[in-house]
Amino acid sequence: xxxxxxxxxxxxxxxxxxxxxxxxxxxxxxxxxxxxxxxxxxxxxxxxxxxxxxxxxxxxxxxxxxxxxxxxxxxxxxxxxxxxxxxxxxxxxxxxxxxxxxxxxxxxxxxxxxxxxxxxxxxxxxxxxxxxxxxxxxxxxxxxxxxxxxxxxxxxxxxxxxxxxxxxxxxxxxxxxxxxxxxxxxxxxxxxxxxxxxxxxxxxxxxxxxxxxxxxxxxxxxxxxxxxxxxxxxxxxxxxxxxxxxxxxxxxxxxxxxxxxxxxxxxxxxxxxxxxxxxxxxxxxxxxxxxxxxxxxxxxxxxxxx
Length: 306
Ligand SMILES: Nc1nc2c(ncn2[C@@H]2O[C@H](COP(=O)(O)OP(=O)(O)OP(=O)(O)O)[C@@H](O)[C@H]2O)c(=O)[nH]1
Ligand SMILES: [Mg+2]
Prior knowledge:
Layout: H1 6-14, E1 16-24, H2 31-39, E2 57-62, E3 66-72, H3 83-96, E4 101-107, H4 113-121, E5 128-133, H5 144-152, E6 159-162, H6 171-179, E7 183-185, H7 199-214, E8 224-233, E9 236-245, H8 248-255, H9 260-277, E10 281-289, H10 297-302
Parallel strand pairs: 1-3, 1-4, 4-5, 5-6, 9-10
Antiparallel strand pairs: 1-7, 2-3, 8-9
The chain binds guanosine-5'-triphosphate and magnesium ion.
Guanosine-5'-triphosphate (GTP) binds next to helix 2.
């Protein structure tokens, strides 16, 4: 006998809309800011400098209708070709293989040659939503319509949604558009789950973000952070971390005169960690040189880049 049993029917009507999306785009497009704004919490680090995100980062969005896995990804670019850059690009392409909806983020007014490469990589039969980011930066709203026309000529996007993460514009529309492409099922995560990464991952990311904010242009690209120890005792997190640089000269620049720069980095990172973990943090930082690690595939793997 064919047909749907009562329990199947119940499952279909009672479940939430479930699915995964990958947020992709060129460096600096506003992907991590979008993820943070959608989740209402700062999960993924953000900076003015390109190539801030280096890992695929899962953020779980839950509301009364849906549970959506958002994968923030590193900025896709083909200009710089270190082993680290290749690993970052691989994590973009691998994320495309595991999602129900793709979100391409284009900064308002800007279409770059690597965006066209990304469009070539879109999986078949998966809807792609184009998010136009940072519309608060447009000098006039009249600039938006001609830009949308240019975007339409690039690809048959299932939706084109102008947004601003900073001013919280278009985010509900985006959630609605994603939900319209998902089917009902049983949630994978508890309602209060935000991510699958451990606390020590975010501790390292917060330190790396402060390096992006406080150091000049060149240094952050050759920096990674290793958490040597992460202990929790009665709500106090004791964290020992090593900042690893790729060049001898960078070590002294990060430490600064009488250790002043390192102290500022440590203080800013600790304050943010205390907010993120909602508890006291004791943070000790060291700096070490691992020459040329960004071009050494074993080191890139060792430091946790896929
Ligand atoms: N004015 C404005 N700036 C934004 C908005 N969203 C992001 N930005 C800024 O754009 C810059 C890059 O933002 P990110 O979210 O780090 O961009 P990303 O695409 O994740 O960058 P990578 O991780 O380097 O690929 C930061 O300086 C953000 O503050 C927005 O809605 N409005
Ligand atoms: Mg990012």
